[in-house]
Amino acid sequence: MERSQWSSKLGFILAASGSAIGLGNIVFFSANAYKFGAGAFYIPYLLALFVVGIPVLIMELALGSWSGKAFPAALRQIGGRPAEFVGWFGLVSASFIAMYYITILGWVLGMWLGALGGDLWKPSVALPAFGLEEGALPNPVAYFFSMLSSWWNVVFVGLVWAANMVITWRGAKSIEMAVKVFVPLMWVFMLVMIGRGLTLDGGLHGVALLFTPDFSVMTEPAVWHGAFSQIFFTLSLGFGIMTAYASYLPKESDQSASGLMIASLNCGFEFIAGLAVFSLLFAFSMVPKASSISMMFFVLPQGIASFPTGVKLFGVMFFTLLLVAGLSSSVSLVESMTGALGDKLVGRSRAGILAAVCGCGMLGSALFAWPQVIDPALDGDGTVGLTLVDLVDHWAFSYGLLLTGLAECLLVGWVLGPHVLREYLNAYGRVKIGVWFDVLVKYVIPLILTVLIGFGIWGEVRDGLYGTGLAGAGTPWALGALAVWLGTSVGLAGVLTMVGDPPREEVGQ
Amino acid sequence: MTTLWLGLALGVELTLTPLVPVEGEPVKVQIVGDVDLDGAPLRITYRPNSAVEATDTLALDGAGAVMWTPSQPGIAVLSVDRGGATVSRNVSVRFGSVPWSGVLVFLGTGLLLFGGASFAMRRLFQDHDEGLPLTAPPLDT
Q1: Are A358 and A161 in contact (CB under 8 A)?
Q2: Fold topology of B2-93
Q3: Are B31 and B13 in contact (CB under 8 A)?
Q4: Chain A CB within 8 Å of residue B112 CB
Q5: Chain B partners of A46 at a C-beta cutoff of 8 Å?
Q6: Which of A134, A384, B26, B128 could crosslink A126 through cysteines, CB 3.0-4.6 Å?
Q7: A81 and chain B: CB distance < 8 Å anywhere?
Q8: Residues 6+ apart with CB under 8 A from A461
């Protein structure tokens, strides 16, 4: 497969920041910030950005540029087949995330249509699949579950996959074209939402709430766990995306400045998204939950519905913002797998590989959109699809990426030697990296990631396996989701490691 | 949301005077509706669903009213349970004075993030005119 290249630095920066800026920046960050005492969350969050976020981001970018390969092949250059296995494990885990992420984007599309058509702004709609009449649940909750329990949501998912395929068709070139529109549009729409939020009565007090620290909560380990996890996920670390994107750059690119730029833009976007969300929450006294789904589909649309004027305009703009931010992230997930398979399956056409990735992905996403109702009382997630999203998200997101990140740091830190990447970065970068990079990659970050993973496992032991208490699902579902995620990730990673060896090349310095 | 729905269905409403509560300033909470609330507890949950959630309880008088002085700013939920039904209302408690620590965190974070972005941008685009193709040959075509 022919490797494409970015035509400009701006294209690469927009694509990489577009990948990092997604649904999580708009909704999950604000939900997490609220949960952990708002202002008090910012201090651990900024510390996590500098201690884990920026170093791992720069490391992943350097890996891609140094090797000229996507994630698994880049790791193979360091530690042979076992290292390549780590890369594939991360990518398969990321593919699970891509599948349900695109399903959620399908739901965003459905809500966008509801916002445009006006049904979303009615006081309520009926939910025939749940046996509930109009008025039983208020909108937008009723509209969301009405859509989720119909086959239309599978159609929406198919449409979003088609959009992903079109955007990734020509690799870096077509992605670059799309992000040059998407990323500026995202910032403009977000600025408009901030303008609206801050001019609401009480909006400024919401902003004050976001930034005013409550230091009593900073002693809670959960706050630090939340902040470090948030940074890892928000920068798309452990997905192999940054390595794949950087592999499309020339070797002499300045990866340290790129990493700093991407991290700043990503967290800067979260910063301004927080302004918009918190002004809205405060103005309409809404209580958020630490769940992207709840924040995205219930709480914020409910706030928009309370606007004195321009409900439809701002509603459509909000869902367009989500759709555009989500698409610029989902194409990077599709591209990281397509690029990695292209490196592995030498001689195969990009179109064939992309079609296979999108075909399998679409089937998986359809499963996550399955509309069958299993929880008519809505005590849990309601449908088969949303229940699967909830369960698989827990395993792939909370463990898959962190495990990959940990293994990646150990490989660079203890097998390759972080000084190799640091010297490579300093040879071409204007922002010089000091010995601190070696210390962080070798000792500090692995320790932090081990603690985060251990903290998660301890939670499973203390509170029971995630999902066992979920209404409509229970223990077999929780165990099934764990087995499918782990079995598929390990099995597929093993197969992909063993098949079709690419020709060996000399890389790096 | 469901509880408020239920409250409205029962014809019971929770009102505040003045309408906008402010940290440290007393506000009258009144339950309006055909229910006996003498001695019933009014539960106040500050920053609900967060790690800093705090609760306070006040007893309503025979007229279903009580004076409440919000102890912290932010979103709070006021709720009353009676006869198996719950009436609740979300309120936003405003800051009593300018929160200078918040202003400091806001300015510091903004400066760090957007200052970092502009620093990196200057370094990154120092030598290259943006929009021009990168000059290095492709690595692997």
Answers
A1: yes
A2: Immunoglobulin-like (2.60.40)
A3: yes
A4: yes
A5: 109, 112
A6: A134
A7: no
A8: none
| Residues A372 and A145: beta-carbon distance below 8 Å | no
Task: Report how far apart, in Å, the C-alpha atoms of A40 and of each of A51, A213, A229, A293, B47 are.
Answer: 18, 4, 16, 24, 14
Query: For residues A90 and A400, is the Cβ–Cβ distance under 8 A?
Result: yes
pLDDT tens digit sequence for B105-116: 899 999 999 999
Contact criterion met (CB < 8 Å) for B128 and A9? yes
> What residues in B contact A258, CB-CB < 8 Å?
120, 124
What CA–CA distance (Å, rounded) separates B41 from A103? Answer: 44
CB A484 within 8 A of CB A84: no
pLDDT tens, position by position, A192-233 = 889 988 999 999 999 999 998 877 778 888 888 888 888 888
At residue A3 the predicted structure's pLDDT band, cuts being 50, 70 and 90, is: low
Secondary structure (3-state) at A457:
helix
Rounded to 10 deg, the angle between the A255-283 and A418-428 helix axes is: 90
What distance in Å separates the CA atoms of residue A383 and residue A371, rounded to the nearest whole number?
A: 6
Q: What is the pLDDT of residues A337-390, one digit of tens each?
A: 998 898 888 888 889 999 999 999 999 999 999 999 988 888 888 899 999 999
Average pLDDT over residues A157-164: 95
Identify whether the C-beta of residue A143 lies closer than 8 Å to the C-beta of residue A125. yes
Residue A40 with chain B: CB contacts under 8 Å: 52
Domains and CATH numbers, chain A: 9-498 (1.20.1740.10)
Distance CA(A456)–CA(A398), nearest Å, equals 8
Q: Where are the domains of chain B?
A: 2-93, 99-126
Interchain CB contact of B123 with A (< 8 Å): yes
pLDDT tens track for B53-110: 889 999 888 888 999 999 999 999 999 887 677 888 999 999 999 999 899 989 999 9
Please judge whether A208 and B92 are an interchain contact, meaning their C-beta atoms are less than 8 angstroms apart: no
**Are A480 and A394 within 8 A, CB to CB?**
no
Each residue's pLDDT tens digit, A67-103: 988 899 999 999 999 999 999 999 999 999 999 999 9
- What is the pTM for the complete model shown? 0.88
Q: Residue A147: which residues within 8 A CB-CB, separation 6 or more?
A: A107, A110, A111, A114, A153
CB < 8 Å to B105, chain A = 39, 42-43, 211-213
